[in-house]
Design brief:
Layout: E1 30-32, E2 44-46, H1 53-62, E3 65-69, H2 75-89, H3 93-97, E4 108-110, E5 125-130, H4 134-138, H5 147-177, H6 182-187, H7 189-197, E6 199-202, E7 205-207, E8 219-222, E9 228-233, E10 239-243, E11 248-251, E12 259-263, H8 265-270, E13 280-282, E14 290-298, H9 325-337, H10 342-346, H11 366-369
Parallel strand pairs: 1-11, 2-3
Antiparallel strand pairs: 3-12, 4-5, 5-6, 5-7, 6-14, 7-14, 8-13, 9-12, 9-14, 10-11, 10-13
Helix pairs in contact: 1-5, 2-5
This protein binds ligand L37FFZMX, 2-oxoglutaric acid (AKG) and fe (ii) ion.
Length: 378
C-alpha cells in the first residue's frame, strides 16, 4: 500500500501544528471587496456583453485579475466539476498516494508544487494533470477504470471542452484590450501561433476546513507562471489578491457561477509588461472545505515567449527577453535564491509604466514580499 503523501490528515486535525503555522500571515490586513468605497472592488468582466476592451485593459493593467461573468459555462457543469473533485479528494490517503507526484514531475497528486519554496506547510492538497489527457493520468488513482473513474473523466473532459473554447475567447478579448485590430488578431503570425498551440493544465485543490484558519495558509503568495489562469471556486471565499499602497490582501468574492481570471508571468512578458501578473494566495475557512479548480493556459514547452511586436509601442524596445516555460521555471528558481523575481531577471528594457497607487505588487522577490517569520528566505 502506498504511504500517505500528507504527514497528517488535515480533515481530522483538531489543531494547526507548528509546521503549518504562518507567522507573518497577517502582517498586511485582509480586506474584502466592498471596503474602501470601491477602491478594493475586484473588477468584474461580463463576457455576455462582449468583454468591454477598455474594462478588460484596466483590470489587466491594474489588478492582473478579474471576476468573469457571462462566460457561458453552465452553472450545473461547474457544480458537477466541484462534486467530482470533492469525491477525488475524499478518497483514502493510500489511494491518492498511488498517484503521488514524483520529484521533478509536473503531474500527479500532492502538496502544491510551490511548497519547495517555503519551509512552512500549506493547508491543502492538489492534483495536477494535462486537461486534455485526464484518462491516462487518473488511471493511477483508479487502475480498474471503474464507474468512479469514468464519471470523473467524463465530467473533466466536458469541462475541458468548455474551458478550451473560453480560453480562446479570452485570448481574443485580451488581444482586443491591447488595442490589436481584428486583422492583427486573425492574421498576426505570433497571435495565431499562440491561439493554435496553447496548452492547458488542471490543478484542482482542496482546502479542508481548518480548526485555526487564522494561523494557516492554503496556498502561499505567488504569481502563476503561464499566460492565463481561469479559476472555478466553491462559493467559499479564500483567494486573495495582493494590493499596494497601502499593502493589503483583497479577498475575491465567490458568487455562484462566476469564474476568476488571473494573469501569469508569461502573459506579462507577452504583453511587454502592459498586462501584469497578479500576486495572490489562498486562505482557508474555519467552517467549510473550499475547492478551487484552476485551469492553467500557457505556451507549449518548446515555444519561446517574447513580447508581441504589436504590444511594443513604436520607438520602444521589447522589455523582456524571449523565454520558454521551462526556462522561466529555472529563472524563477534562481531568482528565489537571490530574492529577485523571475520577471526582473528576464527584463532587458523598461516596461511601460504600471499603476502607481493601489496597483499590483511590483516585480520583487517573494522573500521581501513576505515578512520575517515567513521563512522563505532560502
Ligand atoms: C501548469 C502549472 C502551473 C503550476 C505548475 C503546473 O505545472 C501545475 C500546478 C500549478 C501550480 C498551482 C499552485 C501554484 C503554482 C505556482 C504551483 O506551484 O503549482 C502553480 C504553477 C505555476 O503557475 O507555475
Ligand atoms: O485557490 C484558489 O482560488 C487559487 C489557486 C491558485 O492560485 C493556484 O492554483 O495557482
Ligand atoms: Fe495561483
Amino acid at each position: 500500500m502506498a504511504a500517505p503523501v500528507l504527514d497528517i490528515d488535515l480533515r481530522s486535525a483538531e489543531r494547526v501544528p507548528e509546521t503549518y503555522a504562518w507567522a507573518g500571515r497577517d502582517d498586511h490586513p485582509s480586506v474584502d471587496s466592498s471596503s474602501s468605497a470601491g477602491r478594493d472592488a475586484v473588477p468584474v468582466v461580463d463576457l455576455a456583453a462582449g468583454g468591454d476592451p477598455g474594462a478588460v485593459a484596466r483590470a489587466a493593467e491594474e489588478w492582473g485579475a478579474f471576476l468573469l461573468v457571462g462566460h457561458g459555462v453552465p452553472a450545473e457543469l461547474l457544480a458537477r466539476v466541484e462534486e467530482q473533485v470533492a469525491r477525488l479528494f475524499a478518497l483514502p490517503a493510500a489511494t491518492k498516494a498511488r498517484a503521488a507526484r514524483r520529484p521533478g514531475e509536473a503531474n500527479g497528486y500532492g502538496r502544491p508544487p510551490i511548497e519547495i519554496r517555503f519551509e512552512t506547510l500549506m493547508w491543502s492538497e492538489g492534483y495536477a494533470f494535462p486537461a486534455g489527457d485526464v484518462r491516462a493520468e487518473l488511471r493511477r488513482v483508479w487502475p480498474d477504470a471503474g464507474d468512479d473513474y469514468l464519471r470523473f473523466c467524463d465530467v473533466m473532459e466536458e469541462y475541458h471542452g468548455e474551458m478550451k473554447a473560453l480560453g480562446n475567447k479570452l485570448l481574443d478579448v485580451f488581444f482586443r484590450a491591447l488595442g490589436l485590430t481584428d486583422e492583427q488578431i486573425a492574421g498576426g503570425e505570433a497571435e495565431r501561433r499562440i491561439r493554435d498551440t496553447m496548452t492547458a493544465t488542471m490543478h484542482p485543490i482542496m482546502y479542508p476546513r481548518c480548526p485555526e484558519p487564522e494561523r494557516a495558509l492554503g496556498l502561499a503568495v505567488h504569481t502563476d507562471s503561464g499566460f492565463i489562469t481561469v479559476i472555478m471556486q466553491s462559493p467559499v471565499p479564500g483567494l486573495q489578491l495582493r494590493r499596494r499602497r497601502p499593502d493589503r490582501w483583497v479577498t475575491v468574492p465567490a458568487p455562484e457561477g462566476a469564474l476568476v481570471v488571473v494573469l501569469g508571468d508569461l502573459f506579462q512578458v507577452l504583453t511587454n509588461g502592459r498586462f501584469r501578473s497578479a500576486l495572490h494566495r489562498a486562505v482557508v475557512s474555519g467552517e467549510r472545505d473550499r475547492i478551487s479548480v484552476p485551469y492553467f493556459l500557457g505556451p507549449p514547452h518548446d515555444m519561446a515567449v517574447a513580447p508581441l511586436a504589436s504590444a511594443v509601442p513604436p520607438g520602444r524596445k521589447a522589455a523582456f527577453r524571449a523565454v520558454t516555460w521551462p526556462e522561466y521555471a529555472a529563472v524563477r528558481d534562481k531568482a528565489r535564491r537571490t530574492d529577485s523575481s523571475a520577471l526582473t531577471m528576464l527584463k532587458v528594457a523598461e516596461e511601460e509604466e504600471g499603476e502607481e497607487d493601489g496597483g499590483v505588487a511590483p516585480n520583487q522577490g517573494l522573500a521581501s514580499l513576505m515578512n520575517k517569520g515567513c521563512d522563505n528566505n532560502a
